[in-house]
Specification:
Blueprint (H helix, E strand, L loop, with lengths): L1 H14 L39 H4 L2 H8 L5 E3 L3 E5 L9 E11 L15 E12 L6 E21 L2 E15 L9 E13 L16 E11 L2 H9 L6 H5 L2 E8 L10 E9 L7 E9 L5 E10 L11 E10 L2
Antiparallel strand pairs: 1-3, 2-3, 2-13, 3-4, 4-5, 5-6, 6-7, 7-8, 8-9, 9-10, 10-11, 11-12, 12-13
């Protein structure tokens, strides 16, 4: 099942351009070549090279990325949403919401820790399940802080396909904040590769959508600190491992403007699944967002299939559909 799903994700990613064959076609049209020239520049005693950056250095993708940064060091990280899976009067009604943001740790123009050397971020994500009209009011909240270095690369791979970013995290933590038999937590160190497929037309980043036509990412992690889960599985006579459910990595794909035409032209479809897990422990998440005109909100749909929806539910199989609103800031 997972092999078919990964194959489907890859096929969808390479097909969204409308003609997958165009990925291998390079633009060989003649382009004017700028003549190299040198100009005298004032010296800067704070620069390690004792001179201001050269024209070539100023054109590095890392420096170009800094120029596009907004003034605010705080921005949206993962999808922020508020959704429900049933009518409020239903006994099974549950609200699922997520708040996620990232903080740029340092000013990008510091001489010692320039952005292209130390692009440090701290991120925080919280996902909660709220039982509507019944006790306990909150079934669970997952708290997910992390620290990472996000290196912009923007290197051409083939045609319009580019390696956009390499992200390295020395620490990602996730726990449910509960005690005793319901305590769940784990830590990860990961490396993540993001590949973007450039769009033929310019796409504005609205409601935290992609600026590319499609995005493919591969996240690989080393996990530790999940003894609570191991103890729980042993207590119920289950000899499987926590990572059999949660995997040792993740692959995902996002497609911008999956639906086209009229007011439905600004949307995004996201899909992800763990990799290197037990082949019988399926886990897939599908998210769809359709921007609402003249607002910072989007119609939000989420479908979860399989195990690992939350830490407390990691060994429970489920099929759940949520509808609500996504937002950005």
């Amino acid at each position: 099942m997972i092999k078919k799903m990964i194959a489907f994700i890859l096929v969808l990613f390479f097909a969204v351009s409308g003609d997958a064959g165009e990925l291998i076609v390079q633009d060989d049209s003649a382009k004017p070549v700028k003549q190299a020239y040198t100009v005298s520049q004032p010296q800067d005693v704070n620069n390690p090279e004792n001179s201001l950056p050269t024209v070539q250095q100023q054109q590095l993708p890392q420096n170009a990325y800094v120029e596009k940064k907004t003034e605010s060091p705080v921005s949206t990280y993962k999808v922020n949403y508020f959704s429900i899976n049933n009518w409020p009067g239903n006994n099974d009604a549950q609200v699922k919401f997520q708040i996620s943001m990232k903080f740029r740790v340092l000013d990008p123009n510091l001489y010692v820790f320039k952005y292209n050397i130390f692009p440090a971020y701290f991120a925080y994500t919280q996902k909660s399940l709220w039982n509507v009209g019944r006790h306990p009011y909150f079934e669970e909240s997952n708290y997910n802080p992390e620290f990472f270095l996000d290196y912009p690369v923007n290197a051409a791979v083939i045609g319009r396909l580019k390696l956009r970013n390499i992200v390295i995290s020395p620490l990602e933590h996730e726990s449910d904040g509960l005690d005793g038999a319901q305590a769940r937590s784990w830590n990860r160190q990961y490396v993540l590769f993001k590949f973007g497929l450039e769009s033929r037309e310019e796409l504005k980043e609205t409601n935290s959508f992609l600026s590319d036509k499609a995005l493919l990412y591969v996240k690989l992690w080393y996990a530790e600190g999940y003894s609570d889960e191991t103890n729980y599985l042993q207590s119920i006579g289950n000899n499987e491992k926590f990572l059999d459910y949660m995997g040792r990595g993740e692959i995902g794909v996002s497609v911008r403007n999956f639906l086209r035409g009229g007011s439905l032209s600004d949307n995004q479809l996201d899909m992800k699944t763990p990799i290197f897990r037990d082949v019988h422990k399926d886990s897939y998440e599908f998210e769809f967002r359709q921007k609402l005109p003249n607002t910072y909100f989007a119609l939000y749909l989420q479908y979860w299939y399989g195990y690992g929806e939350t830490l407390l539910r990691f060994d429970q199989f489920g099929r759940r559909l949520f509808v609500g609103l996504a937002f950005s800031y």
